[in-house]
Write a structure and sequence with these properties.
Shape: globular
Low-confidence stretches: none
Helix content: 25-40%
Distance between the termini: 50 Å
Length: about 80
């Protein structure tokens, strides 16, 4: 019996009509930009290498500013 592939769900755009300076990135978006796993991004946040803000009900959601992501990327390249 041949197994069929189930397509991955595409991430929905989170930001609609939000000014660029107020836009934040999700853990998934950072992982896609950095070409790594979400777990790697979460580890970077836990170790303090990547600044993130907790938002939402119960403060469970993580958001990263583009400036924090740029700082993290530049530190990785050095």
């Amino acid at each position: 019996m041949k197994m069929r592939k189930i397509p991955k769900a595409q991430p929905k755009p989170v930001h609609r009509n939000v000014p660029e300076e107020e836009r934040t990135l999700t853990v998934t978006e950072v992982a896609e930009l950095d070409r790594c796993s979400e777990k790697t991004v979460r580890r970077a946040i836990a170790s303090g290498m990547l600044e993130a803000t907790r938002v939402g009900p119960g403060r469970r959601l993580l958001r990263i500013t583009p400036a924090a992501f740029s700082k993290y990327r530049n530190a990785q390249l050095d």
